Amino acid sequence: MNDDCIFCKIIKKEIPSEFVYEDEYVAAFKDLNPLAPVHVLVVPKIHIESLEEVNEENMEYIDKIHLAFKKIAQITNVSESGYRIISNCGRDAGQEVKHLHYHFLAGKKLGIQ
Ligand code: AMP
Ligand code: ZN
């Protein structure tokens, strides 16, 4: 965990957040500035900076995140209507928070961007 990281603080419940799903490896909470009716951030419960820091050692967390997506879809009632997963990595993608996160977007017909 990283003391300066806002998502680590959310995982440790030091900052309040609206959790949608949580297990030993994964936390999923509502985005503060939603871009869709359903906008959940899905994060590993260890501090991984971005997709660039994924490796064999922390891969288990990535596996668990992928298993969590369809659970979050069930919880938010969008399994049938569908959803989109986005992870911004680095400067050109506009990654603001340096703790790996996947945007789970759903609840309306999503445009190309
Ligand atoms: P990114 O640009 O991919 O790094 O996305 C960061 C996301 O984190 C943005 O969509 C923000 O709205 C969201 N965000 C920042 N702080 C919080 C917070 N405290 N709780 C929930 N979402 C947050
Ligand atoms: Zn962190």
Brief summary:
This protein is α+β, with helices and mostly antiparallel strands. The protein has helices spanning 6-11, 59-75; strands at 19-22, 26-30, 38-44, 83-86, 102-106. It has one domain (6-106): HIT family, subunit A (2-Layer Sandwich), CATH 3.30.428.10.
Molecular structure report:
There is one protein chain. 20% of the residues lie in helices and 22% in strands. The chain starts with 5 loop residues before the first helix and ends in a 7-residue tail after the last strand. The protein contains two helices and five strands, in the order αβββαββ. It is of the alpha+beta class and 113 residues long. The protein has one domain: HIT-like (HIT family, subunit A). Strands 1-2-3-5-4 form a five-stranded antiparallel β-sheet, with helices on one face. The site of zinc ion has 6 residues, from α1.
